[in-house]
Amino acid sequence: MAINKAMKAALKVLSYPDPDIKKSYKLIRRFDRIVAKRLKNPNCRIDNLTVEREGYPIPVRVFSPLNNKSKGVILFFHGGGWVNGDIESYTPTCIDIEEKLCRTVVSVDYRRAPEHKFPTAPEDCYAVAKKLFCGELLPEFLPEDIILMGDSAGGNLAAAVSLMAHDRGDFKPKRQILIYPATYNDHSPSSPFASIRENGTDYMLTSKRIVGYMKLYASKEEDLQSPYLAPLLAKDLHGQPDTLIISAQYCPLRDEGEEYGRRLADAGSNVSVFRMPNAIHGYFSLPIRLKLKKKTYSVIRRFLGDDRAAESQPKSWIKLDNAAKIFPPTTSKRDAKVFRFFCELNETVDPRALQAALDECIKSFPFYRSILKKGIFWYYFESTDIRPLVREEHKEPCSEIFNINRKDLLFEVSYYKKRINLEVYHALSDGGGAAKFFETLISLYLKKLYSKDLANLSVTDYDASGAEKQTDSFYKHYSKRKTVGVITPKRAYHIKGERLYSRPLCITEGEMPVSELLNKAHDYGVTLTAFLLAVFIKAIGGSMPAREKRKNIVIDVPVNLRNYFESKSARNFFGIIDIEYNFKEQPDDLESIIRYVNESMKQNLDKSKIAERMTGLTKMENLLPTRMLPVFVKDPGLKIANHFVEMGVTAAFSNIGKISMPEGTEKYINKFGVLCSTKRIQGCMCSFGGSFVITFTSPFVSTDIQCRFFRILTGLGINVRITSNLGSEKNAIL
Q1: Are residues 438 and 359 located together in one domain of the fold?
Q2: What's the total number of domains in the chain?
Q3: Which residues pair with 244 in a beta bridge?
Q4: DSSP state, 188?
Q5: Which CATH number belongs to the domain containing residue 354 in this structure?
Q6: Same domain, 118 and 259
Q7: Better pLDDT: 477 or 509
């Protein structure tokens, strides 16, 4: 809005009562707190932290985009003349910054004058900045991801922190954003800057108030000569970061801020100075929506390169593969359709090395940088410039990732102590594809962390191009061959019991030697998968009520189709076979179950039968009537179809197989594991080195079936070490 005569007259009236700042600052603080209370339901995550400095805990408030989809960090110092303003009054502004710039905002509640005079404020700010840049605060972000920012006195503090960093050598900021900053020590009528005289009486912030703030801030006259209080007094401005300075046309600090930009440019810094027309001091933190603020954010985004990046990276679209189409319409709070790989290392995870590894890994798997959107006829993947960020684990395993109302990546990488986790929404990839991503990620991480020992490490043996990794292998191998008819299984036994409410899943993890399992499977003359599946069926049968014995136990077993058809896809390429067993009609001893399961698996894993099933599903997808149905019709239809399929399933059992890591990395790794969200009991397993890990996930409180499973194994002489996330149940399992 232009400042016309009427507006100018109103501003003059508001500027007329020019009280002594020394007497009025406490009243202004109370007013700021009242205004801040208007905030309701912020669309971001807010965390309150502290940073210790000389025994004083500096309050820090972190504003994070939901699901941590952040492009970086803005370390923000609030304005208020070093006297007013605080973390509460600036919370709405910080939320705006987080939302408009898609970055995590770290707001610092530095100590204010007159209770704490210079240099307390810049030293508090510097202490937080040092912790942030050195990886002790939000370690998932790299130094180049961090931007200094502040308005008014906060702009002054941002410039001071940058000068202090250069002088002390603790860290090196790469970018800073200074909004109408105070940079000089003289705001009297004799100031060398014309804006003090032109704008110092009629535009809210008067030159008299600035002088009053300075007197409260400086503890002695010598302080006014410090470049950390007045950055324009710095004798050497070389080595300062790329800088954006935004001044306001009717601000008394306008000229000194712009002069600081010229001085930085003369010293060799890349500097952009933008004078916001028709703007007064403080407009950026006003609670009302202004076109000026929209324009300001546009200027900032151009400085950060966000607009140019969006223009230079054209979006691409990829249709969902055959297996993925069922996941979006059937995803629910009870079953998020998410699976997790984890790697337990021998040493505590270094978040910064992990973030650097993820940044490199995603370049090899560009398809993973996608969001899922709903089209007219099908869901589809759209490429995005969202940067995946590493974060310390903060939610339950296999929690929701996909939400149609949010534009988020479909995978997350987290860590906790010695564990690194990869969680994937199943529509993006299956276990076989995600395993390759995870192997690459862990290899890169170890290479960065142990660069001397692993200098010659070949990161992965997964020799595939970006195009091969995102190939739809269902479409590639589809042919109009004869297909099997619809198989209608007998009514399946359904496990019942009290469900968990305090947490989504009961997780029971069993670790055992691979050699002992293989020897036992060989004793029975069967594969490891057939042996363990038979043990699982035996465990379920042992908990079945007598009246339910007439029903079939039906186990869904995912099959990696890459073992049968040529494919290097990192997307979904799997099928499902059902293994059925009836305890009323068949023997209940383990040896009989093993023989039956082994024979059943041989029949179901015949390549021609697998090809027929795969072709049948792909053919159904490609029928013209199916393709032409809009998605709002398909979704309910797929839900109903999925419901009837689930009626014929008791549980699921998946063997990812052997995790392959480059030679030389074994000594840094303890074990790998995998687990999955589920509405029933599901077992997932994998091996690495000499360790074999089976993880059961269940929505039920009872762990009877899991106990039976591991007791059968221990009864056969296999050593099992068991852990669970249910504290009260842990002893019962053991």
Answers
A1: yes
A2: 2
A3: 177, 272
A4: S
A5: 3.30.559.10
A6: yes
A7: 509
How many whole angstroms separate alpha carbon 347 and alpha carbon 491? 49
349 with 420, same domain: the answer is yes
CA angle 538, 598, 342 (to 5 degrees): 70
Side chain identity at residue 217, one-letter code: Y
Domain membership flag for residue 203: yes
- Position of tokens 């052997």? 658
Q: Establish whether the linkage from the previous residue to 181 is cis, with ω within 30° of 0.
A: no
CATH, residue 101: 3.40.50.1820
What is the Cα–Cα distance from 377 to 15, expressed in whole angstroms? 60
Domain annotation covers residue 126: yes
C-beta neighbour count of 675 within 10 angstroms: 28
Domain that holds residue 333: 317-454
Q: Are residues 133 and 223 in the same domain?
A: yes
Last residue in a domain, options 391, 421, 454: 454
Tell me the CA distances in angstroms from 519 to 28, 227, 512, 673, 692, one per residue in order. Answer: 78, 74, 13, 21, 13
| Separation of alpha carbons 280 and 292, rounded Å | 10
Chain centroid offset of residue 724 CA: 25
Distance CA 84, CA 365 (A): 49
Say whether both 304 and 322 belong to one domain: no
For 228-282, what is each residue's pLDDT tens digit? 999 999 999 999 999 999 999 999 999 999 999 999 999 999 999 999 998 999 9
Same-domain check for residues 56 and 152: yes
pLDDT, mean of residues 627-646? 84
- For the record, the structure tokens of 258 come out as 């712009």
Pair 324, 303 in one domain:
no
**Lowest-pLDDT range of 273-277, 279-283, 360-364, 472-476:** 472-476
Q: How far apart are CA 421 and CA 346, in angstroms?
A: 15
The answer to the question of residue 467 being in a domain is: no
String of DSSP letters for 635-686:
HHHHHHHHHHHHHT--EEEEEEEE----TT-GGGEEEEEEEE--SS-EEEEE
Tokens standing for residue 361: 């890994």
Degrees to nearest 5, angle at CA 476 with 472 and 477: 125
Find the Cα–Cα–Cα–Cα dihedral 457, 461, 464, 470, rounded to 10°. Answer: -100
Q: Is 689 exposed, middle or buried (0-12, 13-18, 19+ CB in 10 A)?
A: middle
Cβ atoms 351, 139 nearer than 8 A: yes
Question: pLDDT for 176-195, tens place per residue?
Answer: 999 999 999 999 999 999 99
Extract long-range pairs of 405-408: CB within 8 Å, 24+ residues apart.
406/66, 406/67, 407/69, 407/371, 408/66, 408/67, 408/69, 408/371
**232/147 same-domain check:** yes
Q: Is residue 52 part of a domain?
A: yes
Cα 432 from Cα 655, distance rounded (Å)? 10
Of 435, 454, 473, which closes a domain?
A: 454
Q: What does the alpha-carbon distance between residue 713 and residue 517 come to, in Å, rounded to a whole number?
A: 9
CA dihedral sign of residues 440, 446, 448, 454: negative
DSSP result, 81-149: TTTS--TTTTHHHHHHHHHHHTSEEEEE----TTTS-TTHHHHHHHHHHHHHHTTSSSTTS-GGGEEEE
Q: In whole angstroms, what is the distance from residue 97 CA to residue 140 CA?
A: 20
